[in-house]
Design goal:
Length: 485
């Protein structure tokens, strides 16, 4: 178990560093493309990707990470099943293309949809290799792959946008990323799948992965259906503005969730039969995730206008109000998403699916209520629904597990109080001293400096979390020394 702890800490640090680079590349891509393209370009691609994305939510390979033991025959069989489904999904995109054209009354969507389908073949060809790396806790390798692929996607997208290809630059970027991921994953694992075997014993693996996939599909529909409605009833421009606000508010916390969540899921899967260690590891991971997501989300809510002006530019100023109204949803996700790590890693994937089946109609009803009022109405209704759902979600997720709601509250209380104090001081500083600056970049830089300096000072010294972070640092150094030795 000590070896697992060292690998998890080293892997967690690697994922955080990797996601920091990933965050920078995604923000750079968004900043550059927002200035080269128009909201309509983003809206057109979003009309397709929000539907096509539904087809690409396979999680069959998740069993490779979660199960205690797995054979090479089982992994090979899962690979070929994934690849077959990817080919079927690519064909389904071809069939869906004329339907999307008719639904949105937009003929340009045909070839966008057909082209987007090729990404499924690349994604499914890499799924088993990526799962194998995750099972082996090779998170440094995964981080490097992620950075390289994001960089390739950025270069392809920006290059084509500069060449005047418009929305095709976005399409090409979304295809280049999974293609490069497949090349990298096959290269670094050195694993070549064998022939599929009918009696490889994959039924339980498919049941687990199928349940997780269905859960992911339901969740995806719940959290993306508003984009379909906005595109249908308000058009590509409004969807483009809403989509960029949604992406911008989600990038920081999504990257952090991927960084901590990937490592936590793999580690909890190894600890599922040791409830004491599982409880300790989960609460530490949850506290770390909260300490990163809470201040970031509050900062986004307070300084939405400056963030949008700096990240997207003046022509996207209308997105600022939507950006702010969406911030409570990200705060809620930062609190509830870790419970999914716990449920899936400990074999409670059916419960996770049932929870998703309750969330879906709740948020879809909220979208319908807010739809007559445009993007801001949808954002407000969405945030309200998710806020009301927070407590029931926590109670249901943790029922019968080694984790109590009170222990989760304790784990997140110090980061939450620290973030509130930092937000109040940053807001007051901005209101009285910073707002007179004409440059949104310098305003945002000063606001961020005040917010995060105050936050970490309160968290480490007033709330007494300094010892915890020093312990993590010592473990990381020890893990690095062991690895070098």
């Amino acid at each position: 178990m000590e070896g697992l702890k060292k690998k998890a800490i080293r892997g967690g640090f690697a994922k955080l560093v990797g996601q920091a680079f990933n965050f920078g590349l995604r923000i750079l891509f968004l900043v550059v493309m927002a200035r080269l393209l128009d909201p309509e370009d983003f809206g057109l691609v979003a009309m397709v990707t929000v539907i096509a994305g539904l087809f690409g939510l396979l999680a069959l390979s998740s069993a490779t990470v979660q199960k205690d033991t797995i054979t090479d025959e089982q992994m090979s069989t899962l690979f070929w099943i994934n690849l077959l489904i990817g080919a079927l999904l690519a064909g389904l995109c071809v069939l869906a293309a004329p339907i999307l054209v008719a639904f949105y009354s937009e003929p340009r969507l045909y070839w966008i949809t057909v082209s987007a389908g090729t990404g499924f073949i690349f994604s499914t060809a890499a799924a088993q290799h990526l799962a194998l790396l995750e099972r082996q806790l090779r998170f440094i390798t995964l981080a490097v792959i992620d950075i390289v692929c994001q960089l390739v996607g950025l270069v392809v997208g920006v290059g084509l946008a500069l060449a005047g290809f418009g929305y095709w630059a976005l399409v090409a970027s979304t295809i280049a990323l999974p293609a490069m991921t497949t090349i990298c994953a096959w290269t670094v694992t050195g694993w070549t799948p064998g022939r599929p075997r009918r009696k490889a014993g994959v039924r339980s693996l498919l049941h687990f992965g199928g349940t997780v996939t269905l859960n992911t599909v339901v969740t995806y529909v719940a959290y993306n259906f508003e984009k379909v409605l906005l595109g249908r009833f308000w058009g590509a421009d409004v969807l483009g503005l809403y989509g960029r606000a949604y992406q911008l508010i989600n990038i920081p916390t999504q990257n952090l969730n991927v960084a901590v969540g990937g490592v936590t899921f793999a580690a909890l899967s190894r600890l599922q039969n040791d409830p004491i260690r599982l409880r300790s590891y989960f609460l530490k991971s949850y506290g770390l995730a909260s300490s990163l997501t809470l201040p970031t989300t509050m900062f986004c809510a307070l300084f939405a206008e400056d963030i949008v002006l700096v990240a997207l530019g003046p022509k996207w100023a209308e997105a600022a109000s939507t950006f702010r109204l969406l911030s409570p949803t990200v705060l809620v996700f930062g609190i509830i998403n870790p419970t999914a790590w716990l449920m899936v890693s400990t074999g409670l994937q059916v419960r996770s699916l049932r929870i998703a089946l309750v969330i879906a109609p709740l948020v879809i009803a909220a979208y319908i209520i807010g739809m007559p009022y445009g993007a801001n109405g949808v954002a407000l209704a969405y945030s309200t629904a998710m806020t009301l759902w927070l407590v029931p979600h926590i109670l249901w997720s943790l029922h019968g597990t080694p984790i109590s709601p009170w222990s989760m509250l304790v784990a997140t209380s110090k980061p939450f109080i620290s973030a509130l104090i930092a937000a109040a001081i940053a807001f007051a500083t901005a209101h009285y001293f910073v707002r007179h600056l004409h440059s949104p970049f310098f305003r945002l830089a000063l606001e961020a400096a005040v917010m995060f300096v105050v936050y970490y000072w309160v968290l480490l010294f007033i709330m007494g979390e300094k010892a915890l972070y020093l312990d993590l640092l010592r473990e990381l150094r020890g893990s690095s020394s062991t690895q070098e030795g």
